[in-house]
Design brief:
The chain is α/β, with parallel strands linked by helices. It contains nine helices and eleven strands. The protein has a single domain (10-277), classed as Metal-dependent hydrolases (TIM Barrel), CATH 3.20.20.140.
């Protein structure tokens, strides 16, 4: 879908979740995504590939450290080539406390990344890292996931948190326990002023059976209905793994979901500032934003 800059609200003209071939499960490089964003009249395109990690863990689903320099250079080059499209340099990061200094000192301070995304694809449960999609299997792991997600928000590292409902691809119970955990998560997001993401990538995946119904793995409707009660800050993103996914049909469905559930002013007003500053002042380089203390 082509954006109409004169009539569409700012929050529809932005995508802050974009991958490249370097993560081993996406296609296309920076130029291809920028070209598609410009074709569709986006104002702001943020790249947030899966960050490399200093010890090389989970290497099959993220960038190699040897590709970091080229990724950085490709985005910096594109900033000049694709004006007036505003391009931001980011990373999607797992919350691993031992790598906080790498995120802050190497990515934010040394390389001047504009923002980091908290992507809790894995969480630490009693010393074992579990995948969020498939790893939340019982009341204990649901509570551990919730507490881990809240700790990631409280770290001060992340400008927003990706797909908080990723666990819903394998967790099918909107019961009292689930509601208690999600209320805690949403209350923390509101208190910490951390935006949560409606992630369109779940709308591109095969539906799952949930009782008598079939649904997409995420975004999970009961979660976002509850989120509307908390009036949290929100961003809708493509989570693009192919250039054609920039503002594709899945993103339009995510926009419609957001419009049907959320108060647009309270949900998206933070993006007015983010857009106006082009991300440059939205994240303090010490990782302490919105008055919060960085993770120690």
């Amino acid at each position: 879908m082509i954006i109409n800059p004169a009539t569409d609200p700012v929050w529809r003209n932005i995508n802050l979740h974009t991958h490249t071939w370097r993560c081993h499960h996406a296609q296309g490089d920076v130029d291809a995504y920028c070209q598609k964003a410009r074709e569709r009249n986006l104002h702001l395109l943020g790249f947030s590939d899966h960050t490399p990690l200093p010890d090389g863990r989970w290497a099959s689903i993220r960038m190699d450290m040897s590709h970091l320099e080229a990724y950085d250079l490709a985005i910096e080059t594109a900033r000049h080539q694709y004006a007036p499209l505003h391009i931001l340099k980011g990373m999607e990061c797992e919350f691993v406390p031992e790598f906080v200094n790498f995120y802050r000192e190497t990515l934010l301070d040394e390389r001047k990344f504009d923002y980091l995304v908290g992507g809790v694809h894995l969480f630490d449960c009693d010393g074992q890292w579990l995948y969020t999609s498939g790893g939340v299997q019982d009341a204990k792991t649901l509570r551990v996931y919730t507490d881990f997600f809240i700790a990631a928000m409280d770290s001060g590292l992340f400008r927003f948190m990706a797909h908080p409902d990723l666990f819903a691809g394998s967790w099918l119970h909107w019961d009292a326990q689930t509601q208690s955990c999600m209320r805690a998560l949403l209350d923390a997001a509101r208190s910490l002023e951390i935006p949560l993401e409606i992630n369109a990538n779940g709308l591109r995946q095969w539906p799952i059976q949930d009782g008598a119904c079939r649904r997409q793995p995420y975004p999970w409707l009961p979660f976002w209905e509850m989120a509307a009660e908390f009036q949290i800050q929100v961003v809708v993103n493509a989570d693009a793994h192919h250039p054609d996914e920039i503002h594709d049909g899945a993103v339009q469905r995510a926009f419609l979901m957001a419009e049907s559930l959320l108060d647009q002013h309270s949900a998206f007003s933070w993006l007015e500032f983010f857009h106006a500053s082009h991300g440059r002042s939205a994240v303090r380089r010490d990782g302490a934003e919105n008055g919060r203390i960085p993770f120690q």
